[in-house]
Every structure is written in structure tokens, then in C-alpha cells.
Amino acid sequence: GVVPLLLVMMTAFVGYVLPWGEMSFWGATVITNLLSGVPYVGGAMVEWIWGGFSVDEATLTRFFAFHFLFPFVIAGATILHLLFLHETGSNNPAGINSDADIISFHPYFSYKDFLGFAGYAS
């Protein structure tokens, strides 16, 4: 659930930057620090995301593309989450059956997700 959450937050952030074409120094600092912490390619990622040394047309075009593409990535991550995580459960990634008498993890949370989505959609 953390990866889809981060994707939703990134989508909202790049959408927030778009209308004004600017961001706070704090936001730029956070993004720069997070990306520069990636081993080996962090510096190149920082230069690529900003399109140079300032927030200008290249950055806004890139953020617009991200804001358009991220919902599809979110949908894919959500499908993967529902298919694979709920099959074994986050508390049992190996899928070992520790107690056959308990209600299994997968059906409960799959139905809960389905009902939550149905309630949200209606």
C-alpha cells in the first residue's frame, strides 16, 4: 500500500506545481535531496527532473507529462497490489500456512477492498 500512496502523492504534487509554474524553495530542496540520495544516478536524476538549473518550461512540460501518466501507473500498482499482496498477506510474504483454522487473509481483504471501491464509486 505504500507504493500506491507515494504515487498518489507524487501525482498530486506535480499537479499542484503546474498551474502556477513555480514551487517553494522548500519543495525544490526536498525533491533535490531525495533524488540526490539515490546511489550512482542521483546527480543525473536531479539535473533531469529540473531540466537544467531552474524551474522553467522544460520542467513544467515534464511535470505535465508525469501528472498525465501517473494515474495509469497508480492503476497498475493497485492491480498488482490486489493480485499479489493480498494473496499471501503482508504479514506472511512466504505464504506459509501457520494455522488452517483461521479465516484466511486473502478473501477478507479482497472483499473489503471490493466493497470499499463499490462504496467509493457509488
TrEMBL record:
Localisation per UniProt entry: Mitochondrion inner membrane
Keywords: Electron transport, Heme, Iron, Membrane, Metal-binding, Mitochondrion, Mitochondrion inner membrane, Respiratory chain, Transmembrane, Transmembrane helix, Transport, Ubiquinone
InterPro entries registered for this protein in UniProt: Cyt_b/b6_N, Cytb/b6-like_sf, Di-haem_cyt_TM
Presence of keyword Cell cycle: no
Highest taxon of source: Eukaryota
Topology term for the membrane: Multi-pass membrane protein
Residue spans crossing the bilayer: 6-23, 30-51, 63-85
Gene Ontology CC terms, in alphabetical order: mitochondrial inner membrane
Biological processes annotated in GO: mitochondrial electron transport, ubiquinol to cytochrome c
GO molecular function: metal ion binding; oxidoreductase activity; quinol-cytochrome-c reductase activity
Pfam families in the record: Cytochrome_B
Cytochrome b/b6 N-terminal region profile domain span: 1-94
Function, in words: Component of the ubiquinol-cytochrome c reductase complex (complex III or cytochrome b-c1 complex) that is part of the mitochondrial respiratory chain. The b-c1 complex mediates electron transfer from ubiquinol to cytochrome c. Contributes to the generation of a proton gradient across the mitochondrial membrane that is then used for ATP synthesis.
Name of the protein described by the UniProt record: Cytochrome b
